[in-house]
Design goal:
The protein is an alpha/beta fold. It has 11 helices and 15 strands. Strand 14 and strand 15 form a beta hairpin.
C-alpha cells in the first residue's frame, strides 16, 4: 500500500498537495472544504504589504494634524493585521492539516512585528513572497537577492515556526540565492510565484489585466529550476508551483526533487475534485512502480552532474535537437 505522507518545511503532510495562497483560501469555511477534498496543507491568502500601505496613504490628509494622519495609518495597519490573525485562528479551529500563513512584501519594514503575531495566532509556518520587478535605472546588482536574505534573517530572529521562501522566476541565478536562504535558516523554497500578467486593450487604448490563471506551459520552467536546485542545494525542502494542470504533474515534480506541490489555477478551473485526482494518480503510480514511500523516488530524476555535464539541461538539450531534422 502506497503511503503518501511527506515532510515539507518540517511539517508532516498526509500528502504532497498544498493549496497555494489565493481567494480559494481566504476564509475558514473554504479551507475546511479543501481539507475535506484531500488537501495536505493550506497556504492562507496573503497579507499584502503594498495594499496596506496604499490604503494608509489614501487616508493621509495634509489638512490633518500629523498625529491624526499617523493615527489613521496605524489604524489601517492594525485593522488589516487583526483580520488576518482572525483568519488564522478560525481556520485552525476547523482544519487539522498544517495552516501556512503568507506575507507578500517588497520591503524590510513591518514584517518582524507581523510575523510574531502570526506565529502567536497559531500558524504552523510562514510563507514569504518577495515579488517585484527590478526596474531602477541605477540598480545595484545583487541588491534584490540581498533583500530576500535580509527579510528572512529578521523574521527568523523573531519566530520559531518554519519560514518558507516563495521566489519569483525573475532571478538570474536562483541556485546561489537558495543556497544563502538555506544558510540563513529557510525551511523550504517554493518555485515559482506567479507575476501579474499585463495586457493592452487596443480598442480602448488602455492597460488591462492579462490571463489570471497559469497554463500547462508554465510547468516546464518551474520543473527545470526545481530539478537543478534540488540537486545542488539538497538539504532544503522544495515545492513546485505554477502550471500544474494534469494529475501526472505531481509525480514529475517529486521525481525532480519536490517534497510537495502548490496548486491554485487548476482548482479554480476544475473545482476541489482536482485534489482527489492528484492523490489517486500519485497513489496508483506508486503502486504500479512498486514504491511504498515518496522518499524512495523523490529527486530520482533531478539534475545530477555527471562528469561536469548537467543532465537536466545540456543532455536533454542535445537529445531534443538531435531528433530535429
Amino acid at each position: 500500500m502506497a503511503d503518501l505522507k511527506t515532510t515539507f518545511a518540517g511539517l508532516t503532510l498526509k500528502n504532497p498537495v498544498i493549496i497555494s495562497s489565493s481567494g480559494l483560501t481566504n476564509n475558514a469555511e473554504k479551507n475546511a472544504k479543501l481539507e475535506a477534498a484531500g488537501a495536505g496543507a493550506i497556504v492562507l491568502k496573503s497579507l499584502f504589504e503594498e495594499q496596506i500601505m496604499q490604503e494608509a496613504d489614501r487616508l493621509r490628509n495634509p489638512s490633518y494634524y500629523p498625529e491624526g494622519s499617523d493615527y489613521l495609518a496605524e489604524y489601517i495597519r492594525n485593522h488589516k493585521l487583526t483580520e488576518y490573525l482572525e483568519l488564522i485562528k478560525e481556520t485552525k479551529k476547523v482544519c487539522s492539516i498544517p495552516v501556512i500563513a503568507s506575507i507578500n512584501c517588497y520591503s524590510d519594514s513591518e514584517w518582524i512585528d507581523f510575523a510574531k503575531q502570526i506565529e502567536e495566532a497559531g500558524a504552523d509556518a510562514l510563507e514569504i513572497n518577495i515579488l517585484a520587478l527590478q526596474t531602477e535605472l541605477q540598480y545595484t546588482y545583487g541588491s534584490f537577492e540581498q533583500r530576500h536574505i535580509d527579510i528572512l534573517q529578521h523574521i527568523k530572529n523573531t519566530v520559531r515556526i518554519p519560514v518558507i521562501m516563495k521566489l519569483g522566476d525573475n532571478l538570474t541565478n536562483p541556485i546561489a540565492l537558495i543556497d544563502q536562504l538555506y544558510a540563513n535558516g529557510a525551511a523550504a523554497v517554493v518555485l515559482f510565484n506567479r507575476f501579474y500578467q499585463p495586457d493592452i486593450n487596443v480598442e480602448k487604448m488602455e492597460q488591462t489585466t492579462g490571463e489570471v490563471f497559469s497554463n500547462p506551459a508554465d510547468f516546464s520552467r518551474s520543473l527545470r529550476w526545481l530539478g537543478i536546485a534540488s540537486a545542488q542545494v539538497n538539504k532544503i525542502d522544495y515545492a513546485l508551483s505554477g502550471g500544474i494542470h494534469k494529475p501526472e504533474d505531481i509525480v514529475k515534480a517529486i521525481l525532480a526533487g519536490a517534497s510537495a506541490i502548490e496548486v491554485c489555477s487548476a482548482i479554480y478551473q476544475k473545482t476541489n475534485s482536482f485534489i482527489g485526482e492528484l492523490e489517486r494518480f500519485l497513489k496508483g503510480w506508486m503502486e504500479r512502480k512498486g514504491f511504498e514511500r515518496i522518499s524512495q523516488f523523490k529527486g530520482k530524476l533531478n539534475a545530477k552532474d555527471v562528469e561536469g555535464i548537467n543532465t537536466f539541461e545540456r543532455t536533454q538539450f542535445l537529445k531534443y535537437f538531435s531528433n530535429k531534422e
